[in-house]
């Protein structure tokens, strides 16, 4: 347990380092955009390749895709029902932020510390269902309530999903795994080297993006959002933890997965749909802090 808490402390220090580098103007927030592209398009896919090439994918893991997908739909429509009396802008902002999770950037480095490569496999399957929500439902909700006129169809959604390198990597490597095929050693070796950078770069990026300035007029709305996201997520996560007849790692994935921060995709969506970007960014940062504390607490209990 001491070693586990020490690893968590190292994660906090790296996040803090990223925050200090930005506050001291050594790095700027716009530098995070380039860093995020490197993570999502290079180090994260490399980590997915290495992880799924080493572990046998059990058929029960596909239920994680289903649970993640169904929960996203449920939480999205529940949010719109709760916010039915709010204006369109609020419905669009909160409605697109509640359903999806930040797994690639936030969960992977911490899950790797807690559960190792096995944890990456389980959360990877959970993230496949999450991808349909992030690139599908969240985008649809944001576009529907946007001030701009949007033409959204099935082709647009499929196009966005096909351009997600992590999502396409999931599909390809899982298929290769299920077919019993093996990637060339040179691909696995190079991916192994690149994937080692995913954890420190992801944690640094979290620190670079930390920002907590917001208008006090949004405080009530923020509390409503946090209640929907964490109240519902924790309640359903705990319920499934005790009801599902699967192994502990499966249950841990559900319990932790449903309290992860909101997806980073909501930031570019807020720009595209002309929502309050500062509010969306601040709320995203608040979920990072809350999820980090909750994850540390739950991990200590589970460990």
Give an overview in words.
Pfam families: Mem_trans (PF03547). This is Malonate transporter. The protein has about 300 residues and is mainly α. The chain contains 14 helices and no strands. The longest helix is centred in the middle third of the chain and has 28 residues, at about 115-145. The radius of gyration is 19 Å and the shape is globular.
Main beta sheet: strand number and arrangement? none
Poorly predicted ranges (pLDDT <50, ≥5 residues)?
none
Radius of gyration: 19 Å
Basic shape: globular
The computed structural class is mainly alpha
Any idea what the CATH architecture is?
Up-down Bundle
**Taking all residues together, what is the mean pLDDT?**
82
Percentage of residues in DSSP E strands: under 5%
**Domain module tally:** 1
| The level-1 CATH class | Mainly Alpha
Note the quaternary state here: single chain
Distance between the amino and carboxyl termini = 7 Å
CATH fold group: Na+/H+ antiporter like fold
Question: What is the total tally of β strands?
Answer: 0
What is the percent of helical residues? over 70%
- Order of helices and strands, N to C? HHHHHHHHHHHHHH
Number of helices: 14
Organism: Metabacillus litoralis
Pfam families: Mem_trans
InterPro entries: Mem_transp_PIN-like
Membrane topology: Multi-pass membrane protein
Provide a compact summary of the structure.
The chain is mainly α and 303 residues long. The chain has helices spanning 2-23, 31-54, 62-82, 88-97, 103-115, 117-144, 154-162, 165-178, 185-195, 198-209, 219-243, 248-257, 266-272, 277-302. Pfam families: Mem_trans (PF03547).
